[in-house]
Amino acid sequence: MSGEGKRIGGPQEHLLKQLVFPSRFEVLEKYLGSEIARLVVEPPAPTRDALESASQAAKARGEGIFLPFYASSGTGKTTLANSLSTFFPMDFAPTEDLEGIVSFDELKRVASSAMERLPANDRRVVPINIDHRESDPPSSTELSQIKRFLREPTVGYRTALLWPETSGTIAHKMASDFSAIAGTPAIRIPVEVEGPSRETWISIAQNTLQLANNVDSLELLGVNPKDYDPGEFSSIGEFLRQVSNDFSARRMEMLRETRKPIRLAVIFVSESPDAGVLMQLTNSGKFGLMDGSALLDATRESVVGRWWDQHRGLLTQMIVQLDARLFGMAPQTTIPILRRFGSESIVKDLTDLDVGAARPSDIKTSLRRSDFGKYLNGTARPTYETRGTPSAISSPAFSLLADKGFTSGQDKIFNKSMLEAIRIYLEGEGIAVSSSGAEQKLDFCPLIPDNHFEVDGEVVCVEYTWRKGTFLTNTNRGNIAQYVLQKLQNYARELGRA
Fold first, then answer.
1. 455, β-bridge pairs
2. pTM above 0.70?
3. What's the distance, Cα to Cα, between the start and end of the chain in Å?
């Protein structure tokens, strides 16, 4: 997957709403693109031999080949037809689809277009799949058009025309009718194809779950392909549909477990100019999303690490259910906010350091450039983007605040300043906030986040941790992971999950 798309008017769609388990090739291809090749399992020997014979026959005769094939619904006919270049990369070019009428001109147009995209010295057979005519075999006129096309000397002669069917009777009639007008075919048709062996179904389902969502350990949510017996299903299609249905039901169950969907963002506020070590603790393809395995690896010997190691399923559930994210926030973002919204003593200290007054537009700009700001307005790419060197003014200013300390309630005052800035920022981004609060209990559960604000019926909870120096370094990886796991543990307990 290329990354998360922008959702106008607020943060990108909650992770629970993004999770999918496609059970059909067409939908899988939409989500995976070229990655779908990692799901494809080579067909059994009889099917493989028939397809290899078809490509060799086309090359030997200098004539295209008509290839009706059949299998019961859910066997994987579409996957097979679209994966010939994966199974036989030396014999078949990528498969093309014919979606319109079956005529000489249309077949030639599709084949010509395909061959124009291939190198001039590429002599592989081009498969054309007719996947929209199941139980609707070609008429005598169409068969004549097919015969003419397959003998056409510029493109038709190196084409394999695939016609999938679920009915063996229809497929045999189709082959017989074609042979009557075109003569004995180069190979025996129709071809009865077999799907992948049952021994591969569980791994296909596991890979589908991981690749389609780019999130590890989703089987820990409560729907694990290993818990299903392939022998109870007549086809891989039925098997995948059952897993898909159960996964969708579990996803909806998790969404309903709270009255309102909750998001969690943990923000490390320090002098670090970028995300630093957070990149090792988050998902590489989901912007800022916590990586449960990475968090455990960093702190497995701690008390909280050992606790979560015994509750791996719950850890995955909490990360997914909270759409839990990690961000760093640099001084160039925080200092303008504290200069405008900080306490009287903080404003005086910053003024003494020649930190100029921050206008609302300055605060909006600094937040918009931050990773957290991009998360809030839905413009973030899959990975962290904030880069740069410490500011000559804001970093010394932040260092002064750190020297005075972030304890004794000082951090709570900072957190309230952050909420004021977030309100201004969201308003400037055209994102409506229906309610918000700092250090206040949510009205529908016992949580008391540092900040919370509601956008589109979802409550974003923000937990800040104010740290001295350039904190987001590898030496602090374990401390960071431990803090995050403790926050997740607290949320799990307050939400009644642990």
1. 458
2. yes
3. 33
Cis check: omega of the bond before 190, within 30 degrees of 0: yes
Say which residue the tokens 């045999």 belong to: 172
Edge-to-edge strand list for the sheet holding 159-165: 96-97, 126-129, 159-165, 65-70, 191-192
**Secondary structure percentages of the chain, helix, strand, coil, to 5:** 50, 10, 40
- For residue 169 the two structure tokens come to 């009777």
> How many contiguous H segments (helices) and E segments (strands) does the chain have?
20, 10
Enumerate residues 6+ apart whose C-beta is below 8 A from 286.
4, 15, 214, 215, 382
What is the residue whose two structure tokens read 């014919």?
A: 98
216-221 long-range contacts (CB < 8 A, ≥24 apart) are: 216/283, 216/291, 216/292, 216/293, 217/292, 217/293, 217/312, 217/316, 218/19, 218/316, 218/320, 220/312, 220/313, 220/315, 220/316, 220/317, 221/247, 221/250, 221/251, 221/254, 221/313, 221/316, 221/317, 221/320
The runs of H, that is alpha helices, within 117-167 are 140-150
Residuewise pLDDT in 10s, the chain (498 residues)? 334 444 435 677 888 888 888 877 777 777 776 667 666 777 888 888 988 999 898 888 889 999 999 998 888 888 889 889 988 999 999 999 998 899 999 999 999 999 999 999 999 999 999 999 988 999 999 999 999 999 999 999 999 999 999 999 999 999 999 999 999 988 899 999 888 889 999 998 988 888 888 887 788 888 899 999 999 999 999 999 999 999 999 888 887 776 678 999 999 999 999 999 999 999 988 889 999 999 999 998 899 999 999 999 999 999 999 999 999 999 999 999 999 998 888 888 888 888 888 898 989 999 999 999 999 998 877 777 655 555 678 888 898 888 887 776 778 889 999 999 999 999 999 999 989 999 999 988 899 999 999 998 899 999 999 999 999 999 999 999 999 999 999 999 998 887
Tokens of 294: 């990475």
